[in-house]
Amino acid sequence: MALARFLQVSDLHLGSPLGWLPPERREDRRRDQRATLERAVREAIERGVHAILVPGDLFDQEGVDAATMAFALGVFDVSGCPPVFIAPGNHDPYFERSLNWSAQMLQARAMRWPAHVHVFTTPDWSASPVPGLQGVRVWGRCFTANVESLDRPLAPASLSGLTSADPVGFDIALFHGSREGQCPPGQKMTAPFSDEETAAAPFVYLAVGHYHAGSRITAQTGASAGVRLAYAGSAAAVDVTELGAHGGLEVRVEYGRRLPFVEAEFVELDKRRVHDLTAEVSLATTAEQIDRRVLKALDDAGVTDQDIVTVRLGGRLAHGVRYAAPGPDLRARTFFLRLELRRLRPDYDLDAYRAAEANTTEERFASALLKQRDQESDPLQRAMIESALYYGLDAFRLREVVPAYEELGE
Amino acid sequence: MKILRLKVDGFGALKGEFRFDPTRVTVLVDDNERGKSTLLAAIAAGLYGLPDDKRSHRVLTPLERWRPWEGGAYRIELEVEDEQQHLTISRDFERGTVAIFNAKGQEVTAEYKEGKDQYPVGKRLTGLDADEFAKCALVSQNEMDGVVPADEKVRRNSTLHARLENAADTRVGDTNATEAVSVLDGAIRKYTCAEVESSGSVDTAIQRLELKRSTLETEIKTLEHDYSQITSPLEELLRIDDDERKSRESMHGLDSERRESLAAEVRRQLADDEGHRAELQRFTAEAETLASAAHLPRNAESEFRETVARHETESRNLAGLESRKNEELKREREKRAGELEGLAAYANASAEDADRCVALASELRQLTEEDANMRSSVFTLRESLASSGHDPERIQYLTGRFAERTDTEQRLLRSHSERALQYQTEVASLERARTDATEVLREIDTIRHRWRMPGWFMTALGLAAALAGGAVQVLGGLPTLWTGLLAGGAGLLLLGLILLMVGARARIGLHNEAMVELGDAQRRLGQMRTQRAENEQDLGDLARQMGYRDQVDLLREWGEYARLMAESSPALRAQERLVSLETRRKQAIESATALIAPLGGGAPEPAELERVAQGIRQSLTLRQGLAGLESGWSWMESERSNAEAAVAGLKERAVRILQAAGLSYDPDRPWADHARELAERVHAHTRHALLTSDLIPQALRRVLPNDKVTELQNQLALIDAERPAGSTGGSTSAPPAAGAAGRTALEIEAQNRRLRETLDALQKRRTELRLQVEEVWRRYHQEHPEKSAHILRIEQALKRARRFKAAVELARDTIQTVATETHRRWAEFLNERVTKLLGEIGTTVEKLTFGEDLDFSVKLEGTHQATRGRADLHLSAGAKDQLYLAVRLGISEYLSRGQSPLPLLLDDPFATSDDGRARAAMRLLIEHFAPSHQIIVLTCHRKRHESLAELDPELYREKVQWLETKTGTAAK
């Protein structure tokens, strides 16, 4: 029996603008992305893998900045780096004049990809042998335009051009696509494929990119046993919604005289983790109290100062308490903290307004807006009406109206 | 809900237990400030607890406010009932505990818990929260003042209309719909948007945000356009690479051609060199023939001609000098004699006289100016005094009265106010000291009394025992009995005496100090009073002496005099200064008159004085000029001798120039012949100089050095030697370009230069393109993310601003719509109910009509409907109180509709009503409100309510319960 090792890394999105981060944090995060890829190459060398597989979206866009491009060209150009196979994805598609991939265009800028980096440049499947592994081939396909594609890469028609695998070795697939029924919210469905198509495909293993959360399909029959297909997820979190730890997969394929067996092990590469927490701040009377409750929620969740965190505040604030942003202590507690205020409400007893007989203008005002809100189906309009209700009650109760309820939502 | 009992263990100044009969009107009677209002607060606290929130009660929280003044327990117990339940509520505010028991004695506290630790029992019983209960059930005394306040500003905010509007618009706040709308409008007008640094209206912020977004979008589109254009420069870069390679190949081909042309060039240089050497020999020979004129000065001819011309000019000048001198002298003498005739009056005046005239003119001008300024100041100061209301006659009168007073009298008047102040200050401190000492003595007496009472008692007991013992002994009683009595009596007597002594000596030191301090204070007070009396006596004497009614009149006029003196002193000083200036001016005029009299006289004015001074100085100058006229022409002699010397010198110089050129001077020949000969000599000299300085050196420079000639010959030999090898073995060199055969070296060089220029241009273009591409690239990647993030922020801010505007406008419009409807409902209810209530009270108000704006008009008996403003003027204070009470009762009924009938707690509601209306109002409460509401009236007007009770004895006996606030017991 022989053992083939691969390191699968995808969806790094180098050169992403990272607009969700504050300007002073963006450069830090870009450094994180670069460090992640460096760590991936180092892991590949230390683990002795036979190839690095990059199933798309290495870059965030066509034509990244010069520094990022220089980094990407240089990061694989280190001693001991195994062969690298790249299948461009929908964010960094291949085309003849691509600034990321075209050898000619790179030459015009006095740049080039190292010789051991193989980029798949056709939308049809093409194969490239893995040096040092006899009979082992990587089949890849690329995106050719930054648009959603409805081509089914694993449909029988798409696979008709494949030649049969070498009986000594095996074939693996490298591509960017969407597993049907598993598309996470906020991601585009592109190059779709089904679990059935995966099971019928002639590949021992399919390294897929596009989804930023890791997932896998296992099988015991067909071309191989064990893990048949896997998404490694984004190697470094590209958005605050990508929860948990991030990294790549070490894929090991045992092959030889019996059915190849595939296993995949998660390799953590991103030093930061992403959390999504909730904090109840009802009846907090000062902004400092709210900060303290959020700090407690962070402590309870074991958040470190390296992490990226979303805290969803909920509850009712005492009258007159305004809260729009965290204080300096809280800001310094994490690498990036996003506060979600949609569920934060002032402490007005709307149920009482709803239940009581409306005699005064204030009660009748509240009652009228509550009724209007109940009849409204559009969530945005409902939220706006709720804001109007709170502003009116502030005018009656506090004699002060300042912008405070624009973040309200459902 | 009914209040049955209130037990107060400590709440402000209040203590005691109060039992209320809910079937009757309770009248709680007590003096002012004895706890009536506190009792109302205690009832509310029993029902709702006391808040301790510093944020809503910054100065003093209710919990702190009602803490017992004398310390101790801070606790109340309230017993209430409604249709369903009977509850006893115990609240210990010191410990923060609450306990609620039902009629069966079971604890039901947990059933009333709300929030973290709130037990608002009242809310459960009445359906109203604490603020609402206060608004509906409690009518505090001080609210009466606010019905129609006297002050305009307060009236605007606190009129019945405003209060009614507040009540109609919100249960708990004191804001009404108008104010709420105003607050919302204000929020729209003042919206802070940090993204565009706007703090104006929300519309302005939205406009600026839209503009900013549009600008950013344009910038992003520009960036994207620039970025999309870099493909073409990149392709051009690729083409340039090809062109550069081809150019380099062509340059290699030109190398061989250049070698050929180099050989031809060397041969040409050698041939040229031979020609140059022949030319040099020819120039050298010509220079040797002209060597004799070599030393002639270059400017000899021009110098000679100039010298001859000057010699002839000087000879003509010498002849005209003498006649010119005589004519000038004669004309000057005649002119000055004429001027001196006009200044004959100043013939005897000196320069000192002129200086004095100028000095006097200056002094007169200065005095005139100062005089004018001073007069203006005096006028202004007098105007100022007059405008301040000071009558000049009054000033004169007061000055006459007080200026002649003696120093002692003036001192007495001046120091009176300081003495009075000192007296008051010192007397206050002495009175305080005396009071303190008295307090100390009183305390010491109390302490001594505590010792002496048991002392006297024991002494008396001891004496009695001793006497009893003696009696028993005398009567022959049991020895043990009389011995015991005698011993006990002696012991008690001794103890009593000791106690008496201790009491007498207790705090003796402090007692003595207090006595001394008391004595000192009293003595000093006596002295002060004596001194004050003496001063008063002196002032009285002075007042009588000066004819005043008393010292008050005297001091008032003295004060006026002192103030006038202080204010008019600048005017007096200015007047004195004016007199001094007039004296100085007269002296100056006298001096001027005396000075100009011998010089022809005239007005003693500054202009005349200055004219005289100018005449004197002009006369002196003319006389001096006439004396020195002859001596001024002495220069003429020296000039003539100079001219003669110049003529001789110039002739000698011309002869020397001729001799220097190798020519001899012949006096018989004209100067023109000598000049022609000199010109020929100069021409030969110029040609020699041209040969030696230019032509020969140039020819020498053109001739190649021998080393160079040898080098060229070697180079030619080398090229000739290379040619055969080049033609046979030049495989590495590129073949000459097509059509290059037969090209000259210059053409080859030109071609090479063109190629090199092309190469340079390509390299330059490549650098430019690369820079251009990299710059666009850099700018795109640097600015695009920033601008995209910025536009995102702007869009979020825009979204927020729009949502804020929409929300606030919706709130405002809804409040306006709803407020009109609410006010209409209130108006309908109150029109009917309040008019009815007022009719039952028997007030002069026949009808009250509220409009939708909750303002009202009043119809008084026998008059037309009057607006609120007019009614305010007509209504008495009592009528306004009744009006307020009726409206208040109406509001309470309206707000508590659908709830359990509320108890009404009224704090002296008829304080300002006349007896008739107070009686009617009490009857209204007893007969109409008491059946449905529990009524508790608190009053400090005991006699008035007693007299009301006497007027309706049956009614009060059956339906009124009397209570004392202090004790909670039934009043008599």
Characterization of the model:
The complex is a heterodimer of chains A (410) and B (972). Chain A is an alpha/beta fold. Chain A has helices at residues 23-47, 66-75, 103-108, 195-200, 287-300, 328-331, 350-355, 361-375, 379-397; strands at residues 2-8, 51-54, 84-86, 117-119, 126-129, 137-140, 171-176, 178-179, 192-193, 205-209, 215-219, 225-231, 247-255, 261-268, 274-280, 308-317, 336-346. In chain A, strands 1, 2, 3, 4, 5, 6, 7, 10, 11, 12, 13 and 14 form a 12-stranded mixed beta sheet that branches. A 3-stranded parallel beta sheet of chain A has the order 15-16-17, covered by helices on one side. Chain A has a two-stranded parallel ribbon with strand order 8-9. Chain A is elongated, with a radius of gyration of 26 Å. The model of chain A has no long low-confidence stretch (mean pLDDT 91). In chain B, the strands form 3 sheets. Chain B has a 5-stranded antiparallel beta sheet, with helices on one face. In chain B, strands 7-11-12-3-13 form a 5-stranded parallel beta sheet, with helices on both faces. A 3-stranded antiparallel beta sheet of chain B has the order 8-9-10. In chain B, a hairpin with a 5-residue loop joins strand 8 and strand 9 (856-860). In chain B, helix 9 (231-289) packs across helix 20 (671-702). Residues 144-159 and 724-740 of chain B have low confidence and may be disordered. The chains are: A alpha/beta (410), B alpha/beta (972).
